[in-house]
Amino acid sequence: MTSYIDYTIGAPIADDKAPDGPVSERWNRRRFEAKLVNPANRRKKTIIVVGTGLAGGSAGATLAEQGYRVVQFCYQDSPRRAHSIAAQGGINAAKNYRNDGDSVYRLFYDTVKGGDFRSRESNVHRLAEVSVEIIDQCVAQGVPFAREYGGLLDTRSFGGVQVSRTFYARGQTGQQLLLGAYQALSRQIAAGNVEMHPRTEMLDLLVIDGRARGIVARDLITGEITVHIGDAVVLASGGYGNVFHLSTNAKNSNATAVWRAHRRGAYFGNPCFTQIHPTCIPRSGDHQSKLTLMSESLRNDGRIWVPKAKGDSRGPNEIPEDERDYYLERIYPAFGNLVPRDIASRAAKNVCDDGRGVGPGGQGVYLDFADAIKRMGRDAVSEKYGNLFEMYQRITAEDPYEVPMRIYPAIHYTMGGLWVDYDLQTTIPGLFAIGEANFSDHGANRLGASALMQGLGDGYFVLPSTINDYLARNPHTDVDEAHPEITAAVDGVTARLKRLVDNDGDRTPDSFHRELGELLWEYCGMSRNEAGLRKALARIPRLREEFWRRVKVPGTGAEFNQSLEKANRVCDYLELAELMCLDALHRAESCGGHFREESQTAEGEAARVDDAFGYVAAWEYTNGAPVLHKEELVFDYVHPTQRSYA
Amino acid sequence: MRLTLQIWRQPGPDEAGAMRTYDVDDISPDMSFLEMLDVLNERLIVDGDEPVAFDHDCREGICGACGMVIDGTPHGPLRTTTCQLHMREFSDGDTIVIEPWRSKAFGVVKDLVVDRGAFDRIIGSGGYITAPTGAAPDAHATPVSKESAETAFDNAECIGCGACVAACPNGSAMLFTSAKVNHLNVLPQGAPEREKRVLNMVSTMDDEGFGGCTLTGECATVCPKGISLDSIAGLNREFMRALRKRP
Fold first, then answer.
1. Residue at B164 is within a domain
2. Are B174 and B103 in contact (CB under 8 A)?
3. Does B121 lie in the same domain as B105?
């Protein structure tokens, strides 16, 4: 097989669904131009939805309400457990309930800028528009958002913006929004409009006559391989952060659905754009199985610091005020502790690299609430952050009311994902990708409280409008279950699983995952350089080869077998990791979450190179080196400037 | 730390199970309980033995996937989820007994994994507000008092882990059901379906084979999210009210 480094550049790709005209009218125009499916005909159309998080849950419920027949899948035992549930902080919406100068345009502007000018203006404006409807929808469903005494909704400002537009439900906003979507979905399941398959994992995509027509899945309880046919397939399977092994993602979140779709022809957009979240609990040892996020809402009141002196081994409370370096407030006086995530993360890495990190291994910085407790009182702090403080204390056995929290950045979110057009359709007709599974709205860096907005925006409002157009233009045709493409896909899935369980190896799937994760974190993590990425690109194929030689999976494929599930996912990580490193290597600029050491300003800030890299990298899978298709980004409204948060 | 584990092993729903004993060494007090089981499973795989199956996902105490009975108590000695329990709660040399949720309505799938699908069916029978997408009025059209919002939230925190059922001597799902009924019934948005919701959900709960509630309170004692026994009182009140109002 040819090396990934020998990639070629193919024809440019364009988003041919994006309407033109004033940005504020584009979504309305597209909705009007999109063809509709006659309500009487919707029942005859089957839509397959993979995933039940904010995007998948809301899409499944809404499509079923519209009258489509929905067949939906999740690997968890219940759709309520999708990892959206773990989002803590909040959801942005341009309601301007605070009269603090917010507007749809400002949310649009902040999100384009926050994404470091690597997202599409049309998409982001649409996101800002639907944000308003999302809050209305969720309130109507009974989502218990925080409220003021007058009974109206409370908001707060959140990571990197200067208006108070983030709606929240204590520190469990994701949970409450997800339960809202889950309840709407449950209503449709009970009504017979959604055929729900829990504990079932998609293992391949069926592309027949050039259109996505179904999936091959595995029943995780019995091991049975099943085929599901539909008129369109929607992937809402989340991001691929778990490729790093240690991340804030749920342990079983995985990249298999998107990677299998990529192998079937869906281009992969900007795979190197991964987000490192600045406020996670540092790792405590080699046994660490995942990292836990502390909502960045904590940065609203907590102050981040490290000792001024290198190797200061005193406890935090013994270090006097004038020997502390509140480095974010010092370097970025205008935004202080509220700078965007990528900047906060890199600043933490810099002070730790400088030998001023705290806690075990010097891989941590303090997040201190002493001033907030003095200012607001312990009770007020507890009301705002109580559950986060408890969680921190349970994990670390330290009391954040008494000693500052220790935090360190961790992999949290992937801005990259399957390339989609304005309709959220991938390069395979009939295959749609929504939520974190697509690449579209966050550019090179996602702002806090925007993931929930995008997941629900895609699922409740965008996809249900745009998928109509595809379904109306592609009349239903029957697919023979004995179609050679289906047989081949089922045989392929079966052969791979058989090869895994039959392999006479001596290493666990998890040991390979851990090794891959360490490699990626070192060379494709918070900061990247050419030499390191080349090293990773040389080592990943060797690791993959070793995996197939030495992996050991107990049991059989015809039973509940969690080791087999894991091994099967690790196979895909071992391929995806290579594409991520290649994308990071080819993008010889710094932007957003992608920091290339060769491309920085004199002050050590990320230096974007718009002329050379002002495009989306859409990668096409081949059996050898991938092909790069560039989608040029045009900015008519928010003109690219070097981001400055000083 | 060195520990002895006694774990329920059962290959499948229709096969007999048994307790098996395992020794684990080198357990750090900073490990979570599930990380301790990871260590055991990694060793079992290399030794050619079958790893212990258990449900888990977010490992931050919110998805509700994990759950096992540890030394006789669902989720173990702390009032938290199994994933948030850390080994510092145990001592060197301890023997820990680990079993699946035991309840008629939760069949064992394998080892420590059980089928909690009945919970989804209870929600499907009324645990929602009928609000089709796009039909919602402005979010500020209906103010909700802070007290109601807080009560709704306290109940909405339920993560559906099933510890309440596992702890109950009757295998009752009253706390789970009451949490959802109270979350929605206390809100003005939930009012139109208030009676139908409680009657249908209670009826589904009974049909799924959960036991009756005798207010022993074990459920609220183990609930990792602190859903209060008051919630069950609220459910009973809603249920009686709905019965009276039913034509």
1. yes
2. no
3. no
pLDDT, residue A170, reads 85
Interface ipTM: 0.98
A172 CA: distance to closest CA in chain B (Å): 8
User: In which order are the strands placed within the sheet that holds A405-414?
Assistant: A274-280, A405-414, A365-368, A303-307, A324-325
Q: Which two tokens stand for residue A329?
A: 């407030």
pLDDT digits (tens, 9 = 90+) for A118-133: 999 999 999 999 999 9
Note the pLDDT of residue A602: 86
In this prediction, residues B36-56 reach a mean pLDDT of: 97
Query: B74: which strand partners?
Result: B69
Instruction: Tell whether B138 is covered by a domain.
Output: no
Mean local confidence (pLDDT), A393-407: 95
Which residues of chain A are within 8 Å of residue B45 when distances are taken between CB atoms? 508, 552-554, 563
Of residues A79, A147, A289, nearest to B144 (C-beta): A147
Contact (CB<8Å) B53/A510: no
Rounded (to 5) percent helix, strand, coil in chain B: 40, 15, 45
Q: Which residues of B touch A506 (CB under 8 A)?
A: 46
From B43's Cα to the closest Cα of chain A, the distance in A is 9
The answer to whether residues B183 and B150 belong to one domain is: yes
Q: What is the pLDDT of residues A35-79, one digit of tens each?
A: 999 999 999 999 999 999 999 999 999 999 999 999 999 999 999
Residue B58 Cα, gap to closest chain A Cα (Å): 4
Supply the range of the domain harboring residue B17.
Answer: 3-109
Which residues does residue A320 pair with via DSSP β-bridges, in sequence order? none
Question: Residue A512, by phi and psi: left (phi above 0), alpha (psi -120 to 50) or beta?
Answer: alpha
C-alpha dist (Å) from residue A312 to A319, A327, A357: 9, 16, 9
CB atoms within 10 A of CB A575: 17
Residue B71 domain-assigned (yes or no): yes
B121 close contact with A: CB closer than 8 A: yes
Do B62 and B158 lie in one domain? The reply is no
Say which residues have a Cβ less than 8 Å from residue A572's Cβ, sequence separation at least 6: A254, A255, A256, A259, A260
Q: Cβ B84–A83 below 8 Å, yes or no?
A: no
d(CA A470, CA A30): 13
Look at residue B92 and tell me whether its pLDDT is greater than 90: yes
| Together in a domain, B93 and B184 | no
Query: In the numeric block, which tokens belong to residue B3?
Result: 């520990």
The pLDDT tens digits of the residues spanning A413-454 come to 999 999 999 999 999 999 999 999 999 899 999 988 999 999
Contact A136 B137 (CB under 8 A): yes
Clarify whether residues B38 and B126 are in a common domain.
Answer: no
> Which residues of chain A neighbour B187 with C-beta distances below 8 Å?
142, 144
User: Is there a contact between A26 and A56 (Cβ–Cβ < 8 Å)?
Assistant: no
CB pairs A-B closer than 8 Å:
220
The residue among A78, A237, A387 with the most chain B CBs within 10 A of its CB, best to mutate, is: A78
B130 interaction partners in chain A (CB closer than 8 Å): 187
Do A83 and B57 contact (CB within 8 A), yes or no? yes
- pLDDT band with cut points at 50, 70 and 90 for residue A159: low
Whether A160 shows a pLDDT value over 70: the answer reads: no
Residue B21's CATH number = 3.10.20.30
Question: Hey, which residues of A are catalytic here?
Answer: 341
Distance from CA of A141 to the nearest CA of B (A): 5
Contact A391 B60 (CB under 8 A): yes
- Residues of chain A in contact with residue B51, where contact means CB-CB under 8 angstroms, are 554, 562-563
Q: CA dist B127 to A134, A165, B12, Å?
A: 20, 29, 31
Q: Does B62 touch chain A (CB under 8 A)?
A: yes
* Low-confidence winner among A332-336, A580-584, B161-165, B170-174 (lowest mean pLDDT): A332-336
